[in-house]
Every structure is written in structure tokens, then in C-alpha cells.
Amino acid sequence: MMSEAEAMGVQRELSQRVIQHDDLPRPVRIIAGADVEYDKHSDRIAGAIVLLDADTKAVLDAATHVMTASFPYIPGLFSFREMPPLLEAYQKLRLRPDVIVCDGHGVAHPRRFGLACHLGLELNVPTVGCGKTRLIGRYDDLALERGATAALLDEMTGDRLGLALRTQTGINPLFVSVGHRVSLGTAAQLVLSMCDAVRLPETTRQADKYAREALEAAIH
To answer: Is 103 known as a binding-site position?
Structure first.
């Protein structure tokens, strides 16, 4: 297993290969969610990828994989822990998505290479980072209305890392960033399109459900 320093070096190197402009099918017809669930009492983890119809949000396909984590729990290096079950799940899918929305960050990451970047680069599939909480950066207050955004900026350099996006009026924002082969504007549009009535996109909600069910089945 690679060391923490080696993993950080891999992130810095691979971050140079991330494509931050739109290179995805138009229109997007199949949009996927990716999530990983952890067992609180062991090193077992479950990865799930769920494919939805971009218009109706109906589930078209889903796959999961449960395994023992092969990398320790180190903040900033989650992708090395979460990628293996997600890659295994992806190989079980019958269909292929046009884009994947990850429950995790993309370039809004200390080394500009969060889970969404890692997964997108590994699969060569357009990906979006959509985090529930802020990992890095600062942002100004944003309007209360659904669809309001504020730039997420690096506190040292001022570089734009992503967007704080309010998906429902008056509700705390999500943090959207480029994963791979999408622009930030498109990433925000895709996330918002998946959030009809609740804060989290349906892609994340479905992937979380499938991952939790797979983990529970494997443990019990």
C-alpha cells in the first residue's frame, strides 16, 4: 500500500490532467450518482453507482460492491479508500452514464484532486463533485433563493475552486466543483436539475440508499 506522502504526490500529478471544460454528450440523458457507505464497526465499505433518467429521474440501472477498505481513513485522501468499491460497482453496470455526480469534492480540494476528479480520470467519464460540507475555501453570503450561487475561493490564492449552490430556498448550500470533462457552470446546472424538492440531488439520495442497503445485507 502506498504511503500518505506517495498518495499526495499522485494527487498533485494527476490533478494536471483534469479537464475543466465541457466534454460530455448533449443532451445528457443518463446521469449517475456515486456514493460510498462505511460500517461504523469494521473496515467494510460499500460503493454504489445508480443511473437515472436525466428527465424523469427514474432509476435505469444500479450496481454495488462491498469490500474491506484497502486504504486508511485519512482526510484529503478519501478517494484512495473509496475508489476501489466504486470501480467494481461501475464494472457491474449494464448501461453507461453520460456524467456521474459524486458525493464528494472535485477540484475543491487541497491538491485540486478530490474523489470526483479521481473517478472521472480513472474511468474517463465526465464527473461532478457535489459535497454536503465545505472541505476548503471561503465564500460570501449568497441569496436565499433556489439556484443562488457564490464563488468558493481559495483562501490563500483567491483561485475559484467551485460554487456554493443553494438547491432549495432558505436551505444550506451544497458545494459544487468540477470533477473531469465538465465546466463549473454545467456542473452546477446538473446538480440543480437533480434537486426537485429537497437539498440533495436525487443522484446522491439514490446512491446513498443503494450503498446502505448493500452494506446492511453484507453485514447481516
So the answer is: yes
